[in-house]
UniProtKB/TrEMBL annotation:
Keywords assigned: Amino-acid biosynthesis, Aromatic amino acid biosynthesis, Cytoplasm, Transferase
Ranges of residues in domain Enolpyruvate transferase: 56-401
Protein name, as recorded: 3-phosphoshikimate 1-carboxyvinyltransferase
Binding site for phosphoenolpyruvate: K23, G70, R99, Q147, R324, R369, K393
Membership in a protein family: Belongs to the EPSP synthase family.
Gene: aroA
Length: 412
């Protein structure tokens, strides 16, 4: 299915939209809920990834296919390894079988877990025979993916002796790790983060607890981009808190410099984004090591505004649903951008967005964020998005919601 942007109205973009719960928070809480059934959640993510994880948690025998869901792969590896009644083959899509899992598997094996590779050493699919884990300390590298550490943290309170995790090397995506720690603390688990060490005490059971999941800030990024690229706009997004656990909430600060003002409405837990038309610098320099999931959105926004940019701290994008840096380079060059990428950065020269190549078909590479990051460019130049349905991975109502703002989208 292709998305074709046929036109936009000449009025200011305007809408009130309910964004579903954070995928990151939802997936962490689902793993915890499987260990502590009296934990309840509200505003659970509607994303494919969360649905896949929910389904996987219902099975502890046979093959478990998580398709493209990277978070599910990491979290379930640790979860099944510590369930004595589990005997599963954990697998995924072709791309998932190219995404490394060795650092986490090594850490789990050091704790006594029984995990075997079925094809390529260090990559899924993996066979897991769950067992009781009594060791209570492990060391793990922090410079590849914080999800490996979060996976260990999420099973730590149910281990009979708790867990002490020592992180070696520089930690990447630190806000996601802090999110995991905060959620553990919220449900009553003693979890202490001290420099490069995390201490988690064992918990037999927790008190009855209901957690309201904040709406997803990564999903909000596409509306920030739309407002930045518009001539005038006021869009309200529901379900957001000023004191967020999500690292991507840095969007409010970043986009203030790109012409978007964020007003927090604490009474109804919403944010209102408005175009402020303040002067914008012609070059953007950002280190996104703590918020890599918004890099695609920001790069496309900069291109649409004709700004140069240098985005660093992006090494994790090489092992996502696709090599996101290479994908950005390929698709932005189609539109006329002068862009270069390295293993951990992206640099783009200033340009005239109004002179961009038109009616370009943007490939999405099975990556939901490619589709959604490029969609706001329809405000500047006619484009088409291939495989538009890929957005269901994290934001199933995306196309419906952007049409509410006044952008017309057809499908073929």
């Amino acid at each position: 299915m292709k998305a074709l942007f046929t036109s936009k109205n000449n009025k200011a973009l305007s809408a009130t939209i309910q964004v579903s719960g954070s995928k990151s928070e939802s997936n962490r809480l689902l793993i915890l809920q499987s260990q502590f059934p009296n934990l309840k959640t509200e505003n659970l993510s509607e994303s494919d990834d969360t649905m896949v994880l929910q389904k996987a948690l219902l099975s502890k025998q046979g093959e478990v296919d998580i398709h493209h869901a990277g978070t599910a792969m990491r979290f379930l590896t640790a979860y099944f390894a510590t369930q004595p009644d589990a005997s599963v083959v954990l697998t995924g899509s072709e791309r998932m079988q190219q995404r490394p899992i060795k650092i986490l598997v090594d850490a789990l094996k050091n704790l006594g877990a029984e995990i075997k590779y079925l094809k390529t050493n260090g990559y899924p699919p993996i066979a897991i025979s769950g067992k009781k884990i009594t060791k209570n300390s492990v060391s793990i590298a922090g410079n590849v993916s914080s999800q490996y550490i979060s996976a260990l943290l999420l099973i730590a309170p149910s281990l009979p002796n708790g867990l002490t995790i020592t992180i070696t090397g520089k930690l990447t995506s630190a806000p996601y790790l802090r999110m995991t720690v905060a959620l553990l603390q919220k449900i009553g688990v003693s979890c202490i983060l001290s420099e490069n060490t995390i201490y988690v005490k064992p918990v037999a059971e927790i008190e009855n607890k209901a957690v309201l999941i904040e709406s997803d800030w990564s999903s909000a990024s596409y509306f920030y981009s739309m407002v930045a690229l518009s001539e005038a706009a006021s869009i309200t997004l529901k379900g957001y808190f000023k004191n967020s656990l999500q690292g991507d909430s840095i969007l409010a600060t970043i986009y203030e410099t790109l012409g978007v003002t964020t007003r927090f409405n604490e009474k109804d837990a919403s944010i209102t984004l408005t175009k402020n038309n303040a002067p914008i610098a012609d070059h953007v320099l950002l280190n996104l090591a703590d918020a890599p999931d918004i890099a695609q959105t920001i790069a496309v926004t900069c291109f649409g505004l004709g700004l140069g940019c240098k985005l660093t701290g992006l090494h994790t994008l090489k092992i996502k649903e696709t090599d996101r840096l290479l994908a950005l380079q390929t698709e932005l060059r189609k539109l006329g951008a002068k862009i270069t990428v390295t293993d951990d950065s992206l640099e783009m020269a200033t340009s005239e967005a109004k002179n961009s190549n038109k009616n370009i078909l943007i490939q999405t590479y099975n990556d939901h964020r490619m589709a959604m990051a490029f969609a706001p460019l329809a405000l500047k130049v006619p484009i088409e998005i291939d495989d538009a349905g890929v957005v269901s991975k994290s934001f199933p109502t995306f196309w419906e919601d952007i049409q509410k703002t006044g952008i017309n989208v057809d499908f073929e």
